[in-house]
């Protein structure tokens, strides 16, 4: 059990937290103001901070999405640009709070760039609420996700009929599916039961829309991870009529462990896709490149990162 005596500071608006912040600020200023040249240093640092800042863009459907903060602004603003055309503002958080403590960030982009998910964070807290904007009209749509600690933002299906996401709950990380046009309370949990809060669950749809990929990290600096995937019904309908594979954690006696090319000794935790049963090899070849060179690259990656691959049954939601 880890002691957390400062949990009460998570509530930034409580009288106790505000009093603690005021006390700390007073203590800091009482020391800094006695230093010679402190006013000149503060003035110069303020000048250096006030510069135009733009973050790296992401491209979807010929549209570029990025956040930018001008020298005179406190917060980043979300923008879109269609090709080489003029930039279009999608969301300016300045109007969301009078003291400019509410910020926004991108949480997901549809493949055609016509639907954007953005998060709203109040006062620098870990939790955000997720909203959606139609980039053609530049207006919010009715769908939204309530305030929570989201791990993965919206990963849209190619037809934009819904999206997958993961968040940290009281029981641990869980993955969900949201159908557009429905209430978030109806979102279906598709994966995560049994994983405690020390695990990190990342969910996403592959670029071609054929696979749903879930990565389970055993801690932020983990030496073990799992990659779980599900093939879409459109990619191979027969797989949805067959019995799901046994989770990889229960297949140690059935799979052949990889051996290190340098030492020749078995590696703990890595299982070679070349030596798995025929049906698992067939699934693996659907997920990974087929050329010999790319297979060698994947084999090297598997040996060095020690993932465990499996196709699990994680809910009945049709993908």
What does this structure look like?
This protein has 319 residues and is an alpha+beta fold. The protein is built from four helices and 18 strands. The chain has a seven-stranded antiparallel beta sheet with strand order 6-7-8-9-10-11-12, with no helix packed on it. The radius of gyration is 24 Å and the shape is globular.
Total of DSSP H or I helical runs spanning 4+ residues: 4
Catalogue the unreliable spans.
Answer: 234-259, 266-303, 305-319
Spatial separation of the terminal alpha carbons:
39 Å
Beta-strand percent range: 35-45%
N-to-C order of helices and strands: HHEEEEEEEEEEEEEEEEEHHE
Per DSSP E runs of 2 or more residues, the count of β-strands stands at 18
Computed CA radius of gyration, to the nearest angstrom: 24 Å
- Indicate the percent of residues in helices: 10-25%
Report the sheet with the most strands, covering strand number, pairing sense and barrel closure.
Answer: 7 strands, antiparallel
Quaternary structure classification:
single chain
- Shape assignment: globular
Helix/strand structural class:
alpha+beta
Instruction: Summarize model confidence as the mean pLDDT.
Output: 78
Main sheet strand line-up = 6-7-8-9-10-11-12
Please name the defining characteristics of this protein.
319 residues; 7-stranded antiparallel beta sheet; 5-stranded antiparallel beta sheet; alpha+beta; disordered C terminus; 4 helices; globular
